[in-house]
Amino acid sequence: LAENKKDPDYPFAFLATYAPGLAAAGGIRYQPLARALKEYAAESDRASLIRLLSPVSKAAEGSGLVRELLDSGDIYQSLAWTAEEAYAFLREIPLFEESGVLVRVPDWWSKRSRPRVSVAIGSRAVSALGADAVLDFDIGLVLDGEALDKDEIREILAAGSGLALLKGRWVEVDAERLAEALKHWKKVEKGVKAEGISFAEGMRLLAGAPSAYEPEEDEGLREWSSVAAGPWMAELLDRLRSPASLASDTTNTDLRATLRPYQEKGVAWLRLLSGLGLGACLADDMGLGKTVQILALLLILRKEGLKSKPAKGRKSAPSLLVMPASLLANWKAEIESFAPTLRARFVHPSMGNGTGGAETKLRQTKASETVAGGEGHGDLAGVDVVLTSYGMLLRQKWLETINWDLVVLDEAQAIKNPGSRQTKAVKRLKARARLALTGTPVENRLSDLWSLFDFLCPGLLGTASGFRNFVNLLEKREEERYAPLRRLVQPYILRRLKTDRSVIADLPDKTEMPAWCGLSKAQAVLYASITDEFAESLRSATGMGRRGLILATLMKLKQVCNHPSQLRGDAEWRPEDSGKFARLGELCEEIASRQDRVLVFTQFREITSPLASTLEAIFGRPGLVLHGGTPVGERQRLVKAFQEDDGPPFFVLSLKAGGTGLNLTAASHVIHFDRWWNPAVENQATDRAFRIGQKKNVLVHKFICRGTVEERIDALIGDKQALARDLLEGGGESLLTEMSDEALLSTLSLDLARAVEKT
Fold first, then answer.
1. CA distance 431 to 293
2. Which of 649, 639, 665 is nearest to 617 (CA)?
3. For 241-269, what is each residue's pLDDT tens digit?
4. Given the DSSP bridges, would you call strands 197-198 and 134-135 parallel, antiparallel or unpaired?
5. What span, in angstroms and rounded, lies between the C-alpha atoms of 664 and 667?
6. Got the DSSP string for 658-685?
7. What is the pTM of this model?
8. Based on CB atoms within 10 Å of each CB, which residue in 10, 23, 385, 551 is the most buried?
9. pLDDT in tens, 321-337
10. DSSP string, 404-458
11. Residue 306 and residue 394: Cα distance in Å, rounded?
């Protein structure tokens, strides 16, 4: 098919050809198909002619157009076609190609233009973009981004369906679908004209996510219309998505630190979003200094005197920082070091009640003054920031009565469960803008992301059930599966990685390696007896009972892999009875010989003391232990002691209590004695050592018992690492509970030969 520009009534020409051989220059030589009738005219060549025409015959079975050309004999002629005839041919190209026919058409067809209904959201500026903000909504028709005037629109709608010559080029038009799309958006425009479109719904439309204004089932609506940001909104989204282009200056504040360039950009980005009343998630990798970026932001807000201008909707109350109780002492130390003029009040019995000023550091007072009940929270005048824990929100109801300037969540993955009491308490807090700090915005599943954004930008991801339906639709996509969700949340998440040399070039390397361990005879016997008992019980287990049985058995197997005494509950803990303890001894003897220091993580509190006793014998001096029973006030003292130049050689930590918020860069080795089987949680723990301030390369040793469930889960998670980064699926326990009985028994069974193999 070719254009025939000399004849406006018949602007296309058609010719069927075949290739009898190569031309003299080596290219393919095409001839009109009519010549084949002469070339194969002999009776002996009839079979060859049938073979030649077989693709055309096959195409005719599914195409009325080709069947008509064959029946009439027109397929052997050069034909002049109208635009309507050419369009009928062009639409059937996939069928022709499936039949084995090679089709040549004008280049513009593959990238053909279509007039579309254009919906522009946010053409005019809005002073604040909180949950209640509304955006303007404009409709028009465009062709390749160029607006069409009223006469051109009328011409298109009157032309019917097919090919239309518009602005000197052929475009594809479906007047009926185009009119339907225009009618739909005009109806939407009429509905929102008085109040505008909500910011959340506007962002959903821009991202291609399901919206109340765009029915899911009408694919034609999306095919013949497009939603784009208006000039003001487009410029704003560019700024949100490109923090590197933002300018920030903290040199004239009271910050006693020199921010790295990426931190300056982070402060500018947080300032931009919070200034607009938008939620923001600072998801920098662990150790990149999220705390100091927040302190710099608070000092900027204080300097600008926002608190003295409530008439402009700006600061009329302090900001509120909520965090795990274990991090309160760390924030106190950071404020004293980097922002001593920031006036802070702590609401937690372990911290006392502190206020800082230009000449006074945070001071301790009676705990009772800090945890006063709802009758009164004291005078907050002159206070810049209030700091409390997630747990205290449940006991200090007055925190929900304040209209805070900013509410900032540290370790914001604490609200990943939307049904928990502390998550509900957090979401009841009132603020001009909400911020979240977390190195893992999604730990296990995409519902974590929904809960986080239900706090940051309520309504942006819709309801919980609507979000589940959205995710189900995304998982059915064949290409760019999660692109609409990524576009929707990208403006509100700033993520930088330590491994990105463009972010930070002077951080040492981190090397992760498996530390393979065998099983002692006692471990192997116990492991086999547990799996035999499990196989018997599994036959009659169903539903939640089956899940409970799997998790209980999994816990027993983890304990056996650590040490038989952990399962038996005795106090023997002989190192020779455990392959892991033996491997720990070998590894730490080498660490001790280098005079390096090590962090040892375990998910079990009861094993911290036996580990510490074993390590003390190896290093020849005592170390430190931190677990859930360690008082909050004691934790910072332990951290400080470990960080001293002559500090203890080892630090044993329970993963849940010591896996976040601590700066332990004195260690250059990290040992995961037993595995949480969630890469995000393990990486958080590793980042206690691999963070800014680390001067040595960090070696991460992950203990794995050969031939056991530990080895098989490690392989499963390894296979899913790339997928987990995108889909963020659950850890090992989730994988196991969803397996069939056969696959489960295969995973948990003991490979005795590998388990007792000498390292």
1. 19
2. 649
3. 777 667 666 666 789 888 888 899 899 89
4. antiparallel
5. 6
6. HSSS---TT-SEEEESS--S-HHHHHHH
7. 0.60
8. 385
9. 999 887 787 788 789 88
10. EEEEEEESGGGG--TTSHHHHHHHT-EEEEEEEE-S-S-SSSHHHHHHHHHHHST
11. 29
